[in-house]
Specification:
single chain, 312 residues, alpha/beta, 13 helices, 8 strands, 48% helix
Length: 312
């Protein structure tokens, strides 16, 4: 097994060399592994989890604590307001800016998280989609609510029939995405998707790690962690989020535990019921993550159990 290099560099084309990628389902211990490696190697950690990028939800997304964040440099944690629909493309642009600013140079860079599409974009590149102005995004979300998916599908059929024929008339999310890209850029989403981006890490020097915990052990960790979240103020976080009066369809509003605790606060279910619902949703999410990592990550990914020792 090859060792982990002691210094990170940028390749000549702006890619990160000697990167360490750590993936795994929620509550699998990947953040602890990343922190241990970063401390031992003098490295930095870059968040590779879609929910941990949002502010307000510090506890409920299991973001590293203030004490952990202070131990080594961490980037892209809690930097996005919940009112923003953060995307894989936006995350990739943020990583690109970190590389361009030189803050990832000269030391190992550890990318850690549970969002498979982020890892795929990082290691393989994705299409560079256009920025969507908030006004455009809000317009098409409003139209979806007012007119429904099938009406918007007919609009898309008139404006971009090639895309429309590939989508179900009831698939409101993808229909809206196609319409907002067309509205914002004047180009079909298919044109943007055809222009493949480039990887941001040098694959030849990167190390790929994925944690695969025992199912029973993972369930125990999930149960204990959610109880810990409640002790650390998860309920207050949900109240603060509710006070922002955000669109319930925004990604941050779909963080596990938000809807369940909202329902309890509103008296729609008891708090014990809400807690059990949230734990069940977390278990289901972890299962989907594990399945995705098992089938989508290639042979270059080293499979680990929690607590496995790694060679230096």
């Amino acid at each position: 097994m090859s060792g982990i290099e002691n210094s990170g560099e940028q390749a000549g084309d702006g890619r990160v060399t000697n990167a360490i990628l750590i993936a795994g389902p929620t509550a699998s211990g990947k953040s602890a592994l990343a922190l241990d490696l970063a401390e031992r190697k003098g490295g930095v950690i870059v968040n590779t989890d879609s929910m941990q990028g949002y502010s307000v939800l510090d506890v409920l997304t299991a973001r590293p604590s203030a004490a952990e964040l202070a131990r080594v440099p961490h980037f892209l944690y809690g930097h996005v307001h919940p009112s923003t629909a953060y995307s894989t493309g936006a995350w990739l642009r943020d990583v690109t800016r970190l590389i361009a600013a030189g803050v990832l140079s000269g030391r190992p860079v550890i990318f850690v998280g549970g969002t498979g599409l982020y890892f795929r974009a990082l290691a393989e590149g994705i299409s560079d989609m256009p920025d969507i102005p908030q006004s455009v995004r809000e317009r098409w979300r409003y139209e979806l609510k007012e007119q429904g998916a099938e009406r918007l599908h007919r609009i898309l059929m008139r404006e971009d029939s090639t895309v429309a024929m590939q989508l179900r008339p009831t698939d409101g999310q993808r229909i809206v995405r196609a319409l907002e890209v067309l509205d914002a850029s004047g180009r079909s989403i298919l044109e943007w998707q055809a222009a493949r981006g480039r990887p941001l890490v040098d694959r030849d020097s990167a190390r790929f790690l994925v944690i695969e915990p025992d199912r029973g052990e993972l369930i125990e960790r999930i149960e204990a962690r959610f109880d810990h979240m409640l002790d650390k103020g998860a309920l207050d976080e949900v109240r603060r989020l509710m006070a922002l009066d955000l669109d319930p369809d925004l990604p941050a509003m779909k963080a596990i535990g938000v809807r369940e605790l909202q329902a309890a606060i509103a008296g729609q279910m008891s708090f014990p019921e809400a807690i059990e619902h949230a734990k069940t949703a977390t278990r289901q999410y972890a299962k989907r993550q594990a399945t995705w990592f098992r089938h989508q990550l290639g042979p270059e990914w080293q499979r680990l159990r929690p607590g496995d020792a790694l060679a230096d």
